[in-house]
Amino acid sequence: MYKLIALDMDGTLLRDDKTVSPAVFDAIQAAKAKGAKVVLATGRPIKGVDKYLTHLNLKEAGDYVATFNGALVQDTFTGDVISHITMNHDDLITIYEASRELRTHVHFFDKNTLYTPNKDISKFTVHEAFMNDVSLNYINIEDVNKDIVISKVMMIDYPEILDRVVTELPKELVEKYTIVRSAPFFLEFLNIDANKGNGIMLLANKLGIKQEEVICVGDAGNDIHMVEYAGLGVAMGNATDDLKAVANYITKSNNEDGVAHVINEFILK
Q1: What GO terms fall under cellular component here (predicted)?
Q2: Percent of the chain scored above 90 by pLDDT?
């Protein structure tokens, strides 16, 4: 019996119009009623998830969420932090300098706020702020507090530019950080120990849930770690080829109630 299902949001839980379908909503409520833990696992900050947690009744006692691609795991009822695996000022400078050499834009988050050191602010940074309802702050890189605690740093640009960036990333960056492509225009850098798989594993261990009792569902490169970790790793029908390659099961697309299909097949039957 599966006791926990972790769901990516964009391209998985959400339809392309960023809404939850009635079928997916009903399936999640039924899974909760049966006693399964339903955990949103997303690259978004907590503020970008909050309205969905409220809508899905996932802010009750015993509910949890994994944000920043698993770097931050917390209790949604109490706000207590289960795990926050972070980066520091030195990491920011390293990635920022690499972005300059690679000729791409960059932005970063502490726990709640989005910052960019680029005066020519990328439209994808504006998109990130709007999508997550977070404040966007320009800050000169020299003025960043050296005690800052960073959840993630992102290189953001047109897909064809990030395609080039991925091939030109310095070896030392690849070896030092978890690097995931969460969208065609987002390349994310996290602490080497932070990813969705580790976040869900830490939560499952805390709850006494075995690996084989976990389902993880996603659609993109930032979901690979958790899909590989899960007892049942599921790729959406609209998932990237690299995620489908590591999945145990491929469901319908995000616009075809793929999450509801998984819940109905593996939790509610």
Answers
A1: cytosol
A2: 98
Whether residues 105 and 184 fall in one domain: yes
3-class DSSP assignment, residue 154: strand
DSSP single-letter state for residue 203: H
Show which of 191, 209, 240 is a domain's final residue: 191
- Please report where in the chains the tokens 């709007």 appear, as a residue: 130
- In tens, the pLDDT along 120-162 reads 999 999 999 999 999 999 999 999 999 999 999 999 999 999 9
Q: How many CA atoms lie within 13 A of 146 on its CB side?
A: 1
Neighbouring-strand partners of residue 217? 7, 234
Secondary structure class of 67 (helix, strand, coil): strand
- What pLDDT, on the 0 to 100 scale, is given for residue 199? 98
Report how far residue 211's alpha carbon sits from residue 67's, in angstroms, rounded to the nearest whole number.
20
- CATH number of the domain encompassing residue 240: 3.40.50.1000
8 is catalytic: yes
Assess contact for 110 and 147: CB atoms under 8 A.
Answer: no
| pTM recorded for the entire structure | 0.93
Helix, strand, coil proportions of the chain in percent (round to 5)? 40, 25, 35
Domain that includes residue 159, residue range: 89-191
Which pLDDT does position 112 carry in this prediction?
A: 87
**pLDDT tens digits along 62-102:** 999 999 999 999 999 999 999 999 999 999 999 999 999 99
Marked catalytic residue, from 8, 91, 157, 257: 8
Helix (H, G, I), strand (E, B) or coil at 245: helix
